[in-house]
Structures are given as structure tokens and as C-alpha cells.
Amino acid sequence: MIPDSQTIRTAATEAASQLIGRPLRPGQRLVTSGLIDSLSVLKLIGLLEKKLRVVIPPETLQPEDFDDVDLIVETVERVAKPAA
Amino acid sequence: MTTHFEFCRQLRQRLSAHEDRVLLRVVVSPDFEQPREFTGKAILERAEQLAAPFSLPGPRCVVLLLLPHSPELFLLQLGLVLGGHIPAILAWPTSRIDAEKYQRNLVHQLSHLPADRLVTLPRLAENLQGSLPYPVCGVPVENAGAFEKVFPAAPVTQRLESGKFEPRKFRTDPDTLFLQFSGGTTGAQKAIVVTAEMLRAQFRQLTEALDFSSVDSVASWLPLYHDMGLIACYWMPLWHGAASLQMAANDWVLNPELLLKYTARYRVSFCWLPNFAFSYMSQRREQMSRHDLSSVRAWINCSEPVRLKSVMEFASAFADCGVRKESLQASYAMAETVFAITQSQLGKELAVVPRQRVQQGKHSYSELAFDLIDDVYVSSGKPLSGTEIKTVAADGSRCPDNMPGEIWVRTPSLFSGYWSAEGFQTHSLNDGWHATGDFGFVRDGELYVIGRFKDIVIVGGNNIFPEDVEAVVNSIERVYPGRVVAFGVEDEEFGTQSLAVVAEMKGEFNEEAASQLEAAIRKLVMTAIGTAARYVAVVPQRWIVKSTAGKISRRETRERFVRERLNSV
């Protein structure tokens, strides 16, 4: 089962904060601001998969799909599948 | 001596000999299932067709290619070479840039490089037309819309200084094939001049070391502005009539499994990758399906110091796919020698030496721009045929075996000069030797590379020059002029380096202003350099460390940053 939006939002905020090493501010951009690079997007995907127990297939995704918490929630809801 | 004419004649013959065989596959996103395929005959025809319409003013024109990953980029570069011109491939920006700043910066950088044409996507060509001292031509590529959306529909030329076309003052070597930038950014950089003789010498050496032939096959996500992507993964197979599959770096980063799918599907035998890619793919293993990778004769770790951890993780993670330890290989390469200098022996496991068995140098190397993090050093193999290597101590004396020093190289594929703002500049050699700026040692005839002497930061296999980053950050008004330092910090997880920037803030320091300035620095570095700075520290005045001579010390600032800030940034 895919978690609800609020759970994804919390997980995304935690994962992003963990990645940048400090609390993520509301609305803060991750990728287009230069805060994280493309390689770190894969780390972010890995953290989200663990926290939410889902698989996020990377096909057709772009780093910009993970640019802020709203986009991450939208992306996860759109493409995530429950982990086996 | 191989002339341009002779090289192109042979290349045509070789491609014609495989006229019905698919020699080039280019993956065009989002169609990952059916790469575009070109036989030897189609390559020749399409390459010449693409290069024909530019009405260049004469032979030996320097043509800058600023195009995204596409079949057209591969074929146009070849077509220009065959047509007697000299292409130079520039890095296409990421989609995360600020279009206006990027274009302004591009004009600034390219204005200083003598050339006859810039070829790019039609919309960008329209935007840049009249702002460079040479014409800008647009070439449509498949899926151009996806790339062009980054740039605004309205031309920004009126905001750029208008230029006038002047004939190029500088002459080129008649046997030059193409120019190759040694870093990922164009900056104020110099391009290495690759001649027919240099490329031919490199092919001879690599062919012998790898026993490479037309039955081999290569898969790559490495961009063409990188020597590994251009030479090993594109020109080498092309020369041999061997097949290559080319995918975009961006597609691989988000979906590293794609490379393995293609490797299995096309029975790939060679795959060149920078060190971080081995760690990166291993970490994604759990999410990947099982692909048959047993066709690969060599996974060649190149362009970053080879880390045992990265190699072993990969071998173990993909053992069930048919990856054998003896297929993991290493090479030491650089654009200055066209590409490879050493190659490990195929079919044999990589040699390793524990750090405690390596002697200390006679003299200290205070300028090391990296941490000594490895407990074990991995061999990059023996010099290619006709290549000599030595390591040199700080006092200029030759190091004995097992003692680290600066790596010097002498080889038939060595460059003789750069193409720069002043035209062709001869590179001075010391009795034919080139001092590489890399640090390592020789043991039993094999080279072990420890790191870079020079302050070049290698992020994911790409060279980033700290001076470029510092110049860009210095242009921000709130930064104290001249008080910026950029350097690399080791990323042990991925086996690569991360870019770090320390900048002093002008005026009285306060946290809120520092936070705003940090955001501005990140954005600008991404826009102008194309790489995210993993760490940005905005600090009060006089934080950056100066040497006793009063000059900014990159090394000591880096040490202070690692000590005091790394865990709190």
C-alpha cells in the first residue's frame, strides 16, 4: 500500500533534511537551488524507499521531480509501488 | 606519421567495410526500448549530410558543438572531422540552470576562444546570434523541444553585447582532428589539440592492450566532452568497426540499471566507468533485476583514483549476474595523452598494495588537495606499449619503486599544445616528459595513482577547476572580493569527491544574510559550473586562511573547513 500524502510529506522532509544536514525550510528548493546534485537525488530516492517501504522506479523521472517537498509527494504518489 | 587525409581515408574504408552492420546505437529519452541504430553506411551518409550545410569559410575551420546527447551530436562531430574541419564538443548544461545567466556566462567564456562557428540548438542559436565574434548556427536534433524548453522563447540577444565577425587570426595544425577540453566546464580553459598521429598512436596502444577488435562491443553513458566517452567509448569502436551503445549521463544517473540492460541485450564486452559509478550501481543493486553480464571482458575503472572498496562492492553485488573479479580492470588516462596511459592486464585480478608498505617520500608534499583515505592502493596497470612512466620527488629527482611522487609520462600519443585565446600554444615538455600533476607510485612496473597534486576537484569523473568556481562566486556582490576558496572533499560513500566552497561575506556578518548569500552561491555555481556544490560555507571576514606570504591558502582553508565546519554544514 502507498502511504498517505501526510506520511510521504513527513518522510520527504526528514529524508531531505538528513541529506542536506540541517532542517529543510518550508518551500525550500533542493535541486534547482543547487542544494543537492543529481547523485544525491538517488540517495534521496533510496531514503524515501526505506522510510515509506515503497519502490520508486526511476524510469521517466527527472531530478526536478524531487525539487521540493510538494513535488516529492506528487512524484511518490504518481510512481511509487509497494515494496515486495 | 599519420596525416589527417590518411586517417580519414582509412576511417571511411573501415566504416564502409561494415556498411550493413549496426555500429552505433544512440538511446534517445524517453524511448529507452529502441535506441536509434546506424550501420557503417548510415553513419557515413548521415555524418556528411549533417556537416554539409554550415557553409564554412574554408578548410580547417574550428567548429564548437554545444548540443545535448543526441544521434546528431555523435554524427556531426564525425562529419566535421571527415569534412576536414576541427570540431570541439562543449558540455551541454543541466536542465537546472538559469537560462539568462547561463547564456551571458557562455558568451563571456566563448568570446575568448578563437573559432569559426558555434553550432547549437536552433532556439539557443537564435538567442546567441550576434553576441559572439563568429556566426552561431542552429541544428535541429531529435527531441530538441525537451532540451530547448530550458531556454526562454524570447531571444535575449538584445541584453548581450553585440559583436562583429572578424576572420580568425590564428592558424590550426593541418593534421588536427578535433579539440578536447580537459575539464567539464569551458571556463577560461584551453582545449587539447588532438592530431591524426596522436589518435592513431592511441588506437594502436589500446588495441594491443585490450586485444580489441570488431567483435567487441561497448556500452557507455559518458558524455562526449569527456575523453573516456569520446575516445574509449565512441572513436575506438568506430575505428575498429565495433558496435557501441550510447546513452545520456542524465538517464543513467536516475536509472543506472539501464546500462546493465543494454549490456545484456547487446552482449557488451567493454565498459569504461569512473570509480564512483561502481559504488553507485552497487548501492542500487537491490532495486535491480538480474541481467546477464557475463559477456563483459572488462569493466574498466578510470578517471578517478581506483578505490578497492568500490571495485569489491561491485564484484560482490553483481557476482550473480556473471561479473567475475578478473573482469574488473583499471586504467590511468587523461586528455593530454588522448586517453589511456596504463591498462591493467585483462583476465587477471587487480594488484593491490597496503598503504603501510608504501614508503614515505623524501620530501613532504604540502600541496596535496585530497585526504589519504585508502588503506589499500589499487594498481592502474602497466604503461601501454611505447609509454614510459616515472614518479618525481619534490626536489626533481626520480623516485625509486614504491615511493610516491608526481607522475610523469612520455608517450607517442602525448599532446604538443593547446588551443586557447591566443590560438595554438605549444606545451613545453621536459625532454619529452609531461608532468601530470597526479600523485602516485610505481611498483613491479605497475602504476598506483593516489590522487591529484593540483587542486582539480573530480566530481563523478568530471574535472572541475577551483579557479573557475572561485571566479564565478567572486562575481556576487555580497562576497568579499577575492575571498573565496573552492576545493574537493572526499565522498567515501560514492568513492568520488564533492565540491565545497568557502566565501567570506562583505560587511558585518549575520546569520540571515549569510543564509541568503549561501543560496545565491549555490544557485550560481549550479548555473555556471553545472555541478552542485555539496558544501557552501559563508563565513565572516578573515576566516579564510592565508599563507605566511599573505596569499590565500586553499589547502589550509580546506583543512580548517574539514576540521571546524564539515559536520555542521
Structure in words:
- The complex is a heterodimer of chains A (84) and B (569).
- Chain A is mainly alpha-helical and 84 residues long.
- Chain A has one domain: Non-ribosomal Peptide Synthetase Peptidyl Carrier Protein, Chain A, CATH 1.10.1200.
- Helices cover 50% and strands 5% of the residues of chain A.
- Chain A has helices at 5-20, 38-52, 69-79, and strands at 54-55, 81-82.
- Chain A has a two-stranded antiparallel ribbon.
- In chain A, helix 1 crosses helix 2 and helix 1 crosses helix 3 (69-79).
- Chain A is globular, with a radius of gyration of 11 Å.
- The mean pLDDT of chain A is 88.
- Chain B is α/β, with parallel strands linked by helices and 569 residues long.
- Among the domains of chain B are: 325-452, Luciferase, Domain 3 (Luciferase, domain 3, Roll); 465-564, 2-Layer Sandwich (GMP Synthetase, Chain A, domain 3), CATH 3.30.300.
- In chain B, 29% of the residues lie in helices and 26% in strands.
- A five-stranded mixed sheet of chain B has the order 11-12-13-14-17. Chain B has a four-stranded mixed sheet with strand order 2-1-10-9, with helices on both faces. A four-stranded parallel sheet of chain B has the order 4-3-5-6, with helices on both faces.
- In chain B, helix 1 (4-16) crosses helix 2 (40-51), helix 11 crosses helix 12 and helix 13 packs across helix 14.
- The longest helix of chain B has 19 residues, at 511-529.
Features:
heterodimer; A: 84 residues; mainly alpha; Non-ribosomal Peptide Synthetase Peptidyl Carrier Protein, Chain A; 3 helices; globular; B: 569 residues; alpha/beta; Luciferase, domain 3; GMP Synthetase, Chain A, domain 3; five-stranded mixed β-sheet; four-stranded mixed β-sheet; 15 helices; 28 strands
Instruction: Name the assembly state.
Output: heterodimer
- The CATH level-2 architecture of chain A is identified as Orthogonal Bundle
In CATH terms, the superfamily of the domain at 325-452 in chain B is Luciferase, Domain 3
- Physical arrangement of strands within the biggest beta sheet of chain A: 1-2
Fraction of residues in helix of chain A? 40-55%
User: Quick one: how many beta strands of chain B?
Assistant: 28
Termini separation of chain A comes to 10 Å
Kindly estimate the percentage of residues of chain A that lie in beta strands according to DSSP: under 5%
Mean pLDDT of chain B: 88
Q: Which class do the helix and strand fractions of chain B yield? A: alpha/beta
Q: How would you characterize the largest beta sheet of chain B?
A: 5 strands, mixed
Strand order of the largest sheet of chain B: 11-12-13-14-17
Total helical elements of chain B:
15
CATH topological fold name of chain A: Non-ribosomal Peptide Synthetase Peptidyl Carrier Protein, Chain A
Highest CATH level, the class of chain A = Mainly Alpha
- Arithmetic mean of pLDDT of chain A: 88
Instruction: List SSEs of chain A in N-to-C order.
Output: HHEHE
Spans where pLDDT lies below 50 across 5 or more residues of chain A: none
Poorly predicted ranges of chain B (pLDDT <50, ≥5 residues)?
157-162
**Continuous helix count of chain A:** 3
Label the CATH architecture of the domain at 325-452 in chain B: Roll
